[in-house]
Design goal:
Elements (H helix, E strand, L loop, with lengths): L14 H10 L8 H8 L5 H10 L1 H12 L11 H8 L1 H13 L6 H28 L4 H10 L2 H9 L1 H12 L4 H9 L3 H11 L5 H8 L3 H8 L13 H7 L4 H12 L7 H14 L3 H17 L9 H5 L35 H9 L5 H15 L4 E7 L5 E8 L11 E3 L4 H7 L5 E4 L4 H5 L6 H4 L5 E8 L2 E9 L9 H31 L1
Antiparallel strand pairs: 1-2, 1-6, 2-3, 4-5, 5-6
């Protein structure tokens, strides 16, 4: 029952009407023909069925309620594995055959918006998987599927009211807070609506679902002050630790983080949430941020050949748009308004280089480094830059790349000992470290920087970023605009942080490729 022509007003349906409409929706299957044939084969086993269901949340969502109806389960399923064991292969095959006979109405916009919501859930489940391995959590299947289920209503919403879903997506992309926009457009709390919907289809009690997986705002605020940013993790008060350290709490935190990244990676709300996750995991905030970015890029790289880029994972690579200005939806799968309707603006996003890093389409290290220099100069307007790389296991940094800087000595002899200077030592202690020195701070910076960095400084300021290679600080990027380019601002520094993170991932891949080539020869 797709409402693609709903009137542009708030509260198009009451909460009870939303619940009834969501119960009727069946999502398009994500599995390909060969995968479905594998499930329908006469010799298909439980493992074949489970592997397809794990990759297709839409299909799994039809299997789970059937298993939840079993008398000995009574709606308290622990995992998809349990559901498959309860139902059996033949019953799942019959369900799939009936599902394939039911044709979905064509709605390209609803499909696009639903795909974005699914990719957000996918990022959350990948984070939960990583955290569970770190914490040695025993019930990984339960944690993963509990996290998937947190997004069900957002997957289905575009198929219930396409216009409402599009208004929400447009306003969120423009910088507005998602939960507030959803309340205004839908007339209800979507997280609560999701809990009620899961209860309606037989997957647990709404009140229990919220209590088990969500921290109340008061506890979130307290936990946000306990992020690990120093040498040792802060002590968590016992009354807070009981709920904060529950494995199921990580499900709600992971899904909240995935939703918040749609605004960008350096927003205030996301930083507070990463501090909560740091306290939950007892791991540094910088490690939480690195893992989240790494999972997002992994999703972007894992797309099927010939398919469009995953909408949410693709958007995670670009800086957030300034709030208050509507922007087009991230997915370009459906027609949009004419580009001429948008005012001309300078994009700070280094889209070309990051896009190539996401596709990993650099043929060799030399072409990768040339493209990086071009990107810094042309896309990010940082015409003065240098790359300093660690020399083996020593504390020396050599300088293989310099552009726009006055270097009096031969390039191979330009080097410094990073541990001998407090600024470079602090940066090299953190694989995702960064430093932005503004124009008004240059006098103090010149007194503390080592040679040759002090000779590269101008009055307009500069920035330095740690190069993360396989989780280890492998060097530093020194960047600044040349005299003809605008000074660094917050938006451009955020773009540079994203750029350096993508550079580190691709640089790691290039170095591994060279090592394999050397071994093979």
């Amino acid at each position: 029952m797709t409402r693609s022509t709903a009137p542009a007003r708030h509260h198009s349906l009451s909460p009870d009407q939303w619940r009834a409409a969501l119960a009727e929706v069946r999502l398009p299957l994500q599995s390909s023909g060969p995968q479905l044939s594998r499930v329908l084969a006469s010799d298909a086993g439980l493992g074949d069925v489970l592997s397809v269901l794990e990759a297709d949340p839409a299909l799994a969502l039809e299997v789970l309620p059937l298993a939840a109806q079993a008398p000995r389960v009574d709606g308290r399923l622990r995992s998809l594995q349990q559901a498959v064991n309860l139902i059996g292969v033949s019953r799942i095959q019959a369900l799939l055959q009936a599902r394939l006979r039911r044709k979905m109405p064509a709605n390209a916009l609803a499909e696009s918006l639903s795909a974005q919501a699914l990719e957000t859930s996918r990022l959350a489940t990948q984070l939960v998987t990583v955290w569970a391995w770190q914490r040695h959590a025993g019930d990984l299947d339960h944690l993963v599927w509990a996290t998937w289920l947190m997004g069900v209503t957002r997957w289905k919403l575009p198929w219930v009211d396409t216009d409402a879903a599009q208004r929400i997506a447009s306003r969120v992309a423009g910088g507005e807070r998602r939960t507030q926009v959803e309340r205004e457009v839908l007339g209800c709390d979507l997280e609560m609506l999701n809990a009620w919907h899961l209860q309606d289809i037989g997957l647990g009690q709404a009140s229990e679902l919220r209590q088990a997986y969500m921290l109340p705002p008061s506890q979130l605020a307290r936990a946000a002050r306990l992020g690990w940013t120093g040498d040792f993790p802060p002590e968590v008060p016992p009354i807070l630790a009981r709920d904060l350290h529950r494995p199921t709490t990580g499900c709600g935190l992971a899904y909240g983080l995935a939703l918040e990244t749609e605004h960008g990676w350096y927003g205030q709300r996301l930083q507070r949430l990463m501090s909560v996750i740091s306290a939950h995991l007892a791991r540094p905030v910088s490690q939480v941020r690195h893992q989240a970015m790494d999972r997002a890029l992994t999703i972007a790289r894992g797309q099927r050949p010939g398919s469009p880029p995953p909408p949410v994972a693709e958007r995670l690579l670009w800086p957030a748009k300034p709030p208050g200005r509507p922007v087009p939806l991230a997915s370009s799968r459906v027609p949009t308004e004419s580009p001429s309707a948008r005012p001309a603006e300078r994009e700070a996003s280094p889209s070309g280089f990051l896009d190539r890093c996401a596709r990993s389409d650099f043929t060799d290290l030399a072409s990768f480094l040339r493209s990086a220099q071009h990107s810094l100069h042309e896309e990010l307007e940082c015409g003065r830059h240098a790359l300093l790389l660690r020399q083996g296991n020593t504390e020396d940094l050599a300088c293989p790349i310099v552009r726009g800087l006055d270097v009096a000595e031969p390039l191979p002899s330009v080097r410094l000992t990073w541990s001998a200077n407090p600024i470079t030592a602090r940066l090299m202690q953190h694989p995702s470290g960064s430093l932005w020195v503004r124009a008004g701070q240059m006098q103090a910076a010149r007194a503390r920087l080592p040679s040759p960095l002090v000779h590269w400084c101008s009055d307009s300021g500069f920035a330095m970023f740690t190069v993360n290679v396989n989780g280890r600080a492998a060097g530093l990027w020194w960047v600044a605009p040349d005299p003809t380019q605008p000074a660094l601002d917050e938006a451009r520094v955020q773009s540079l942080r994203r750029w350096v993170h993508a550079f580190g991932l691709e640089f790691t891949a290039q170095m591994r490729r060279r090592q394999r080539s050397t071994v093979s020869t």
